[in-house]
Amino acid sequence: MSTLEFALKNCWEVYSSGRQRKEMDVLSKEYLTFLTRCKTERETVARVRELAEKAGFAEGIAPDGAMFVLRGKTIVLARPGKKPLGQGFRLLGAHGDTPHLDLKQRPLLENGFVAQAKTHYYGGILKHQWLARPLALHGVVALKNGRVIPVCLGEDPAEPVFAIADLLPHLAQKQMEKKVSEAFEAEKLNILFGHAPAKIKKRVDSKNGDKEPVKRMVLELLHDRFGLEEEDLYSAELHAVPAGPARPVGLDGALLGGYGQDDRICVFSGLQAFLAETKPNHTQLLVIWDKEEIGSEGSTGAKSRFFEYCLQDLVDAWDPRARLSAVFYASKAVSGDVHAAMDPDFQDLHDKLNAAQLGHGPCFCKFTGHRGKVGANDAHAEYVAWFRALLENAGVPWQMAELGKVDLGGGGTVAKHLAEYGLDIIDFGPALLSMHSPWEISSKADLYATVKAYQAFFRS
Ligand code: MN
Ligand code: MN
Q1: Which of 90, 105, 262, 376 has a CA 20 to 30 Å removed from the CA of 454?
Q2: Strand boundaries in 323-411, DSSP class E
């Protein structure tokens, strides 16, 4: 009789051949480049679009593929399958937005002989992780004349970076007695922006230049480099993100470190799988959403009608006799999102039987939500069983977990917003250490297994 007990499979043991390890190396190199290049939702969508175009996709609907982009922040790719769309699709969704610091709309001020830029954080961050580290500035400034100026400062090693200063230990005694939630104030997350004052002759010509000569200098530099005036910043989206490239971690380089792996590891894996499975049975859809980190709100988030409109257009073009509701009910979806790996130093926060283990494959989250499954999508048992069979046939290791102990935390994803349409959906993605920090860590083996799992899903 075979073993009755369930045992997790270690991806390093499952994928141990020379060929597999070589593929793993190639894949993780490409992934690190992707992470290094894509630090905002716009950059992520632009890169996904670029790679899709290389594979033959173009915006609009063609007989063999479709692409829809909204505001440069969310993208849908579709490829018809052998079966008509009326028999359902296979959708993989992930999100391209990541926690960061946004510059306020009126950010610039001068204090203590430096110019600073005020920020408003986006998504769930631990504020202290953003202090005393190199930051880069990515985003756009939209002008009244309709031009949109892209900004990327602090990534080229020859260029200066930005930073938020932190308190010295010698003066931190009062701070250390406070609760962490009170010790770090959002209004003190101000980015160092400049130090040398403007030349006297120039600044006396300006209204405030005499009182704020360093801010004046910053404005002059922004004007020289980008043609900007202070008012233009009101229509800007500038993100402060960790500066520098993503890199392998550990003596063996078997871990991958970098900013924004929640959820760009699923964006990357999903795209890899989507582009690899060119002759699917069912219509394939890859959707990269924006605004997941702030509740999937807005016109580019998963709560918007964008995806529904895209699908209606696809039905009209590819299977006009199908009913939209029937298409949804026949469809299967994955919410590709990351999970919290069991932290070796905080094991007490996890229920070990139901915790995600690094290197043991992508992780299902049957339900999300918090304390009593409130606000959850709860995938149906039948769908979990279907998936188990699929992965067993594909030989891909997988696991299932909850996000921490029952009363200790929780979270949500895009799954519940898609579930509203009646399709089968479950959260499924690799586990990370240091999730939501400026330097998240994944396992090279999990990345490889995730691409394999997503490919099997698209093939099904
Ligand atoms: Mn996520
Ligand atoms: Mn997140």
Answers
A1: 376
A2: 332-335, 339-340, 363-365, 369-370, 399-400, 410-411
Distance 382 CA to ligand 2 centre (A): 27
Rounded to the nearest 5°, which phi and psi values hold at 282?
-100, 160
pLDDT in tens, 29-73: 999 999 999 999 999 999 999 999 999 999 999 999 999 999 999
* CATH placement of domain 11-98+259-459: 3.40.630.10
**pLDDT tier at 337 (50, 70, 90 boundaries)?**
very high
pLDDT in tens, 20-33: 999 999 999 999 99
Q: Which CATH number fits domain 100-242: 1.20.1740.10, 3.40.50.300, 2.30.250.10, 3.30.1120.10?
A: 2.30.250.10
Ligand 1 ion: Cβ-proximal residues, 5 Å cutoff: 262-263, 337
Which secondary structure element, helix H or strand E, spans residue 64, and what is its range?
none
- The kind and range of the H/E element at 452 are helix 444-459
Ligand 2 centroid to residue 340 C-alpha, Å: 10
Residue 120: strand pairing partners: 102
